[in-house]
Amino acid sequence: QVQLQEAGPGLVKPSETLSLSCTVSGGPVTSGTYYWTWIRQPPGKGLEWIGYVFNRGGTMYNPSLQSRVTISLDTSKNQFSLRLTSVTAADTAVYYCARDLQSIGAFDIWGQGTTVSVSS
Amino acid sequence: DIQVTQSPSSLSASIGDRVTITCQASQDISDNLNWYQQKPGKVPKLLIYDASNLQTGVPSRFSGSGSGTYFSVTISSLQPEDIATYYCQSYGKFRPRTFGQGTKLEIK
What we know:
The structure holds two protein chains of two kinds. By secondary structure, chain A is mainly beta. Helix content of chain A is about 0%, strand content about 55%. Chain A has no helices and eleven strands. In chain A, the strands form two sheets. In chain A, strands 2, 4, 5, 6, 9, 10 and 11 form a seven-stranded mixed beta sheet that branches. Chain A has a four-stranded antiparallel beta sheet with strand order 1-3-8-7, with no helix packed on it. Chain B is an all-beta fold. Chain B has no helices and eleven strands. In chain B, about 35% of the residues are buried. At the A-B interface, β5 and β10 of A face β4, β5, β9 and β10 of B.
């Protein structure tokens, strides 16, 4: 059974870079069936899709975040990662990694989420 | 980009009620619309994909319908465990994924 687990610092200073990784167990990130996705949820607010990476390293990002976001794949570790630059308090959120089943565009497996606060 | 608008933003209903939440897309997305349930403090869970297909393990009291720009999810008989926030989400080939703003369902 595929499982996803986020990891990374829980506190980031304003203007710095937020970096998270998601380790996939139970299946390869090289599968051509899935997009590997990041989603976030600010406190008390709704879900926001950040973007995805797929097996050949191609990416798609939320247009509102595109200038600050990089999602990449590390096949040697069976992981994918998120980098978000120039963070502000508005980037404080629970960050989820998820598996997007390409054929239905749905997030069928999610990590547990990791809380990231942006504060000095 | 395609926007999806949910209504209502919150809803209060009694146990046993039939409950419907709607989602409208800013342009025709065929049946490329999924629904999620997020219980308080929990991870979102896929409920319905491609507008009307129940994900494995989801109770049959949930159903989805719609195509084009108008979609809905219905709970035929509300149960206490259905209290959650529900999100719609659109997708398409080479298009960003987009979530609706959510509908918070509470017990009256």
